[in-house]
Every structure is written in C-alpha cells, then in structure tokens.
Amino acid sequence: METWVTENQTKNMRLSLRIKKILHHEQTEFQELFVVDTYEYGHMLVLDGAIQTTEQDEFVYHELISHVPLFAHPHPERVCVIGGGDGGTVREVLKHPSVKEIVHVEIDGAVIEASKKWLPTISCALDDPRVTTLVKDGLVHIREAENEYDVIIIDSSDPVGPGVQLFEVPFYRDCYKALRENGLMVAQTESPWSNKDLVARTFRNMGSVFPVTKIYLGNVPTYPSGLWSFTCGSKGPDPAAAPESVSFETKYYTPQVHQAAFALPRFVQDLLED
Ligand code: SPD
To answer: What is the CB < 6 Å shell around ligand 1?
Structure first.
C-alpha cells in the first residue's frame, strides 16, 4: 500500500508526496511535528501540516535567506537567527568568515532535537562554538535587545497563531532597535501567488520602519506555488548589492543570483504598489 503526506497549501490546492516511512512524530508543547522519508525530496520536516524543509531543496531557501543580507552588510560579526530550528540558516551564516557569533533563538526545542537526529545534513552546524542557542520566544528576545546585531534573520514558519506577530510593525520596530548601525534584517514572507495580501502587507510594514526595504524571490519546489519571497529591511546598505565573488561552496547562491533575485515580475511589482 502507498502512503502519502499531503499539505493543504491553500483552501483549494494541495501538495502530496509519497513517503517511504514516518521517521518521527510527536506533539510538542507548540505544534505537531513529523519527520518523514519521502521518495522525491528525502527526509522532510512538517510542522502542523506545513512542509518546513526537505533534504533535497532546503539549500535554496537557506542560502537565499542567509547570504543575501550577509553579503549586503559591509562586515557582519554578530547575527541573530529567529526560528530555523532545523539549523539550515545557521549552517549557511557560519560560512561567512567575518561572523563571530550567532545567537540562535528557537521557541520549540523539540524541532532542534528532531532535526539533529533526522536531518543531519541540515542541522550539522548547530553545535558550532560560534553558536549560542536559546530556546525562547524570538519576539521577547528581540524586544529585549538593543544595538546588538549586524544582521537579524527571521526564519519563521507560516503566519498563523502567535507567529503572526513576527510579520507586524511592532516587531519590526524592535528589530530596528536591536540592529547596529548599517544593520539589516530579513524575513521569509511567503508566496506572492498564494499569500498576496501578506506579501504586500509585510512589505508595507517593514517599509514603515526601515529607510530601505526590498523584496527578493527564489524557487523552493516544496513550498506553496514554488515561488517564495523574502523581505529585507536595511538601515543603509542596499540589500541587492552582491559581492564580486564567493569564497565558499554554495548550491544555489551566486553573485548573479543575488542580483537577479531582486528583479521582480510585473505582477509582484503591482502587488507592492497597490
Ligand atoms: N510554508 C512553509 C514556510 C516555511 C518557512 N520556514 C521554513 C524554515 C526552514 N528553516
């Protein structure tokens, strides 16, 4: 008998992947967590029915959310990662030689533990000595921080329940306060196909706080519609400024991809202008 995992990506659209087996299942303090072994994308983390990451396509999202703001910053030393318990973002940030410390703030310790066990290629850098892990609400952590970080990365799950606040103006004000001079923040901001209002609203919200706000796009096949957006708020540096070259290994990111990711299709430009 075949077993399939299905995500209801919108009210009227589903994505199903055939799985070999369920590797892990638990109800954590915050959410229902599954790790499954899929035929198409390898091991896959699912939280409350939403696909978070897979072994095969994770590099697109993690490289884009990390390398764009880190290369845009003139000399990033202290970085805060909110969410991202699977460790993919932390792994990518650590590739930047200037980074001295990452404060990694994940609300659900069970995600970290399950990822360490079942997603080793993604979580492999979580125990690096430059990483301080706090199992804590990211909203609270950023509210308490002042002038501490060069880059803040919001690697959140979808805007449902308490996570909604990570997409709102008071949180972006707190991020602004937590950033040092020349600081940048980036947030994953969903799909311009299936979450049009949110993409537009988040852009407006961040734009009401930061002098420079830009959106960029990438292709993540297991996310709703495949086309994914990231919104970057900056105190000064241009988020679209790419480096001349990259001194470490990547699978998706190149300086050309960095620049091209900011070239928005007309329908996305229209979303932002409306
Ligand atoms: N619809 C799922 C969006 C998930 C975005 N965050 C993924 C976390 C990967 N580190």
So the answer is: 50, 52-53, 61, 84, 86, 88-89, 155, 157-158, 188, 223
